[in-house]
Amino acid sequence: MRFSGENADISGNRSARMLVGIVNTVVPSADITLDNYEQIPALHNSERVVRKVAHMVEYGILTALIWSLLFGFRDLPRKYSYILPVIIVFCLGIIDEKNQTTIEGRYGSWFDVCVDTVSAIIIVCLARYLTDRYRRQKMIRKNNNPSS
Predict the structure, then answer these.
(1) pTM (2 decimals)?
(2) CB under 8 Å to 129, separation ≥6 — which residues?
(3) Which domain holds residue 26?
(4) Burial (CB count within 10 angstroms: exposed 0-12, middle 13-18, buried 19+), residue 103
(5) CB under 8 Å to 79, separation ≥6 — which residues?
């Protein structure tokens, strides 16, 4: 939410710095700087991709944290620990995008809300898969070692 509260210039500069750092790490001979960043259309256009990946990572981490919190409640049916994080992230995505409409040079985007929600769904599916796999492995070990 803090990043959403920054105006377009600050936000764009952060994305540009991140992209320049990535390019210079992957291709050190590129020697890209913030000064010549705007002159390279491919980099400038890639900024959108960097922003969407950042959205996915941020909201994916948020989903994992919410899921782990809810999964810890023994009285909460397991299905809710998988459904509620997606609903909460969807609502927070809407709030985040609505907040951006109040910032100079920024705008809200339903596409970003969808990216956030898809990220939440991916994380919840991964969590479900891993917990099911863990339970199956635990059952196999228990069946193979009846004395424990």
Answers:
(1) 0.76
(2) none
(3) 3-144
(4) middle
(5) none
Q: What is the 3-state secondary structure (H, E, C) of the chain?
A: CCHHHCCHHHHHHHHHHHHHHHHHHHCHHHCCCHHHHCCCHHHHHHHHHHHHHHHHHHHHHHHHHHHHHHHCCCCCCHHHHHHHHHHHHHHHHHHHHHHHCCCCCCCCCHHHHHHHHHHHHHHHHHHHHHHHHHHHHHHHHHHHCCCC
Instruction: Write out pLDDT tens, residues 72-116.
Output: 888 888 888 899 999 999 999 999 989 888 888 778 889 999 999
Q: Which residue has the tokens 């995008």?
A: 97
Number of domains comprising the chain: 1
